[in-house]
Structures are given as structure tokens and as C-alpha cells.
Amino acid sequence: MGKTLYFDCFSGASGDMVIGALLDLGMPLEGLKAALGSLAIEYGGVSAARVLRAGVSATKFHVHADAQPDDHAHSHDHSHSHDHSHPHEPAARAHSHGPVHSDADERNPSATPAVRTHVHAHSHEHHSLKEIAEYIGRSALSAEGKARAVHLFERLAEAEAAIHATPVEQVHLHEVGALDSIIDIVGAVHGLEQLGASTILSSALNVGSGVVQCAHGTFPVPAPATVRLLQGVPIYSGTVAAELVTPTGALIVTGYASAFGPLPEMRVSGIGYGAGTRDFKGVPNVLRLLVGEGAPGAGTERIVSLECEIDDMNPQLFGPLMDRLSETGALDVFFAAVQMKKNRPGTLVTVLAPPEKREALAAVLFTHTTTIGVRYQEMLRDRLDREIRPVQTPLGLIRFKVASRDGRVMNAAAEFEDCARIAAASGMAIKDVQAIAIKAWLDSAPPLRA
User: Fold this and answer.
1) 86 backbone dihedrals φ, ψ, rounded to 5°
2) How far apart (Å, rounded) are the C-alpha atoms in residues 398 and 220?
3) Do β-strands 300-310 and 375-382 pair in parallel, antiparallel, or remain unpaired?
């Protein structure tokens, strides 16, 4: 049975919280410093401190403008906040996890501004995506770690490009190029690589509530870059009026978690708490990481199957229906041709979903089809662990869907969208791109079912 890691994002996630939780689990700070030092860039110094967040002991990770004489863990907290300039903010602006505050706010944690403003305690030089890839290429990360880190930065750039309708190569890489983000992302890749979990899962993410003040105006939480990175992931708004998930936090969690949902069956062997900057009254501002062994049958989960037959609907509506069901939380949707009463040809609609999504999906079927009844039944399904692994190929980075059980790889397939994009850009046939991708996977990974 392989090691399982679970991101418990009940109070959101940020890059420094991920590293804090990894340090709390036992990742050596000196090892982290060595990994960051291998980037060969000037970033000042890092440290870790034990803090309390609503009475919960956690580790706070700090980045300092200047290296400290004694860079070991401190027994007191700091008001300095790093991390998370949004891709849509100016280069000199950043924000912390929770409302940015003054020294007076730090002394009075209950004083929470209604609207977040973005400040930075110290300015950093910004770096291009190409420069970052070069830094990572000479780092001490493994080949897989380097490829994953570069892919994470590319996702940040793509998110900003999509927001501003700008080609990726013309994006102003404020979030991507900020030193704090480089430290958080490379540090998280290093820590997760050292942890060696074969299965990484996550809860739904509490994004907070309220509004955030950005360079381009006031936006509701989650901010544009963050929600872009959280597409397809379950999120919800909690009681804290603050932005709880930052772009870097969203990037790391979604980049590693292969599935999202309630805590799986597992034997917990380690618990790590990473602290956010603010101390919210009554709500621990922490990210919790749970590590353990997947219990027997951990690949088994309960799902619900919903069905209905339709023989009187415009067939053009089935495509949008599938999209709507997927957006509402369906795990799978498929249509099958059936012969109905009075010899009418019809369509059997089948939806597979988590049990808690049943009512919402039934509502979609009643609203967007002509059916007057929906059947459902709960069942168990056994599935392989799934994760996305970036693989460097002669044509560029291509993501692979990797399926495994107990750490044993059973199947690997190149993401079709990546192959189609590269084929369109190069003029090659998609099948040729797929063949090159599969060869790169076989050259870089152990044999399947080995």
C-alpha cells in the first residue's frame, strides 16, 4: 500500500502555508534552504516559526528581504507577509493569506478590514518565464520535479493570459516572476518530492468571502487568477470575510491532487499544520496535511447513478446538457440509443456522480431536458489512483494521466489536448505527437506494471 497525502483546505491554501505544513510534518529547513540555494538566485533568507492560530499550533514559513545571521526557526511570529501577488497586479504589489494589516492589526487580530488592499513589505526583482525555467533547470530538483515546477509556472502564465486575452509570450509575469512565488513553488515541489506520496488528494477548498482590491478594480473572492486556476475543482465560500485561497496555493493544490472530496479511508501517520498570516477569531487559519497509508479498499468509493430515457427532445440539446451536468459535478455522463414504447427511438441518459451531488444533478435533468422522472441508485466502484505527471518530450512538455494501485503503475496516457495543441502548432499529425510522447514516457518512467 502506497503513502497517501491529503490536503485539508478547510481554511484555504497559500504557498507559504503549504511549505509551513511540510515543515511541520518534518521536512528539514536546511534541506529546503539547500534546494532554494541551488536555484542560484538572490532571495534574502527564509525561516520558520511556531505560532498559534485560533489556539492551534502551526508552523509559519517566512521569506525575508535579507538573509538573517541566525536563520533557524524562531519562537515568535512576524508580521511580515510574503507570497501571492496576483497575476493581474503590478509588480511591486502582493498580498498575504488573509487581509493585509498594519502593525496595529497584528496586535489586534480581530480588526479585519472589509476590503483587502495589497502591499508588499519589500520589493523583489521579477523574472521572465524563460529565466525561471533556466533557474529550475540548474536546480537540485529531480528531472520530474523540474518538469513539474516549470509546468506550474506555465499554468500561472496561461491563467493571466486568459484573463487579459493576451498571448502567453506577451504576459507581464508579475505573479509568475515574483521571487516569493518562485520560492513557494520550488519549495513545495521539493517538499512534496521528498515526502514521496504515491497518492495525493484534497478536500474542497474554502475560498473565503468578500471582495479583494486589485490593480484593475474591486473583485469578489476568489479573484480572477485564483478562480481560473480552480476551474473544475470543488470550492465553497466560508464564514471568514477574507481571501483564503491565493493563486500560488490554488496552483500547488490543483497541480498535485488527483481527486477532490472527503477524507478517504486511510491510517494517518503524520499531521502537519501550515499557518497563514492572520489569526482569525474562532477559525484556525491553517492548512492541514494528513499523511498515512491507504487502507485496504481505499480505492473503493460510493457513487450514485442517475438515469432517464428521453424520446421527445431536440437532439441539439444533448451536447449542452452534457456540459451542464459536468459543470454541476458529474463524474461521467454518457448517452445510449434505446427503443422506447410505441417503437420510438430514444436516448438513455446516464450520470455517475458523488452521492452528495444527486439532487443538484436531478435538478439539471428536470430543468434542461423533457424527462418527467429520474431513477437513481447508489453503488460502489473500485478505481485506480490517478494523477497528472508532466513529461518533457522533444516537442515540449506533455501531461500524462497515470493510473496506479499501491504505487504500481498500471496505465499511462498522454493528454489529448496537449498533443492536439502541439500538433496544431507544428503541423504534425496528432498520432505522431502521441507516439513521440509515449516514447518519452517509456524512456523516463519505469515499465508499466513493473
Assistant:
1) -65, 150
2) 34
3) antiparallel
Q: Among 181, 160, 156, 184, which residue's Cα sits nearest to residue 170?
A: 160
Closest Cα to residue 178, out of 82, 246, 96? 82
Q: 313 and 298 in contact (C-beta within 8 Å)?
A: no
Q: What is the 3-state secondary structure (H, E, C) of the chain?
A: CCEEEEEECECEECHHHHHHHHHHCCCCHHHHHHHHHCCCCCCCEEEEEEEEECCEEEEEEEEECCCCCCCCCECCCCCCCCCCCCCCCCCCCCCCCCCCCCHHHHHCCCCCCCEECCCCCCCCCECCHHHHHHHHHCCCCCHHHHHHHHHHHHHHHHHHHHHHCCCHHHCCCHHHHEHHHHHHHHHHHHHHHHHCCCEEEECCEECECCEEEECCEEEECCCHHHHHHCCCCCEECCCCCCECECHHHHHHHHHHCCEECCCCCEEEEEEEEEECCCCCCCCCCEEEEEEEEECCCCCEEEEEEEEEEECCCCHHHHHHHHHHHHHHCCCEEEEEEEECHHHCEEEEEEEEECHHHHHHHHHHHHHHCCCCCCEEEEEEEECCEEEEEEEEECCEEEEEEEEEECCEEEEEEECHHHHHHHHHHHCCCHHHHHHHHHHHHHHHCCCCCC
- CA-CA distance, 125 to 1, in Å (whole number)? 45
- Neighbouring CB atoms inside 10 A of 204's CB total 14
Read off the amino acid at residue 257.
Answer: A
pLDDT at position 441 is 93
pLDDT value for 103: 29
In terms of Cβ atoms closer than 10 Å to its own Cβ (0-12, 13-18, 19+), residue 448 is middle
Here the cell at position 17 is 502555508
Q: Please tell me the distance from the alpha carbon of residue 385 to that of residue 393, in angstroms, as a whole number.
A: 24
The pLDDT of residue 120 is 35
> pTM value?
0.61
Give the pLDDT of residue 176: 53
263 CB-near residues (< 8 Å, 6+ apart): 6, 8, 203, 290
Q: Could you tell me the three cell numbers for 359?
A: 439532487
pLDDT-flagged residues of the chain (< 70): 1, 66-126, 168-177, 215-216, 295-300, 446-450
247-269 pLDDT, tens per residue? Answer: 999 999 999 998 888 888 888 99
